[in-house]
Prior knowledge:
Elements: H1 2-9, E1 36-39, H2 41-46, E2 47-57, H3 61-69, E3 72-73, E4 78-82, E5 85-89, E6 92-93, E7 111-114, H4 117-130, E8 133-142, E9 145-155, H5 158-180
Antiparallel strand pairs: 1-8, 2-7, 2-9, 3-6, 4-5, 5-7, 8-9
Amino acid sequence: MLNQIYSNCYNSTPDTRERPILQMAKTIKKKQVSNTIVLNKKAKHDFFIEEKYEAGVVLEGWEVKSLRAGKVQLRDSYVMVKDDEAFVIGCLITPLPTASTHIHPDPQRTRKLLLHRKELNRLIGAIERKGYTLVVTALYWKHGKVKAELGMAKGKQSHDKRQTLKDKDWEREKQRTLKRGN
């Protein structure tokens, strides 16, 4: 078998000067790349998220580099609407130590969100009239730009949180019993 492979690898024409021709199959592994930068799991625990919106985020250069390195935290962030514009408050983007010396980065600066006027008017109406809260549930890459997933949410009471935990535990227990085959 090996003799056949070696005999097939060498081309006997004088132009190629006896160079081996590789005839092995190429295996191409597709790497599963996630576009998600960070998720806000605390928001899903503390709020009932009813609707989700996508918004662009205005960032500086050092912030984009930090996001690529994963140095971001959304735990205490929320969205505030002021003068018909939306802003993210409390989003912590830690600057990299290699940041430029002439720039003094502010890790918790207020960042503007880019939304269409119709979406912004709908969000303003829900916040002011219906008592909803806007929270950032995720940051992700889309076509080389950073997008924020906003959740229009109502706050959970402590008994709602306990019920949610019970439901999750029950689902996990059901999956375990089905997996065991009992």
